[in-house]
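Let's sit down with a protein and look at its sequence and fold side by side. We need material for that, and I hope you will provide a protein of your own picking. Once you have written the record down, we can walk along the chain together.

***
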Amino acid sequence: MPLVAACAAAGTDYADLTGEAIFIRECIDMHHKQAIDTGARIVNSCGFDSIPSDLTVFALHRQGRTRRDRTAQ
């Protein structure tokens, strides 16, 4: 958490691959406003641990767009 705080204060981007929901919630609660103010981007759950769920969301999004495009024609 000290690293997240330092990044938010300095306007430096931060990324990790944690899947720990409590840590992520605390990051958002404690540092979101400051990160927006300084331009820092804090990204949790990126990389190895989140790839299966990220790919599933991407596939769902792509499927939804395909269906929407078909119904628009």
Observations:
- The chain has a mean pLDDT of 91.
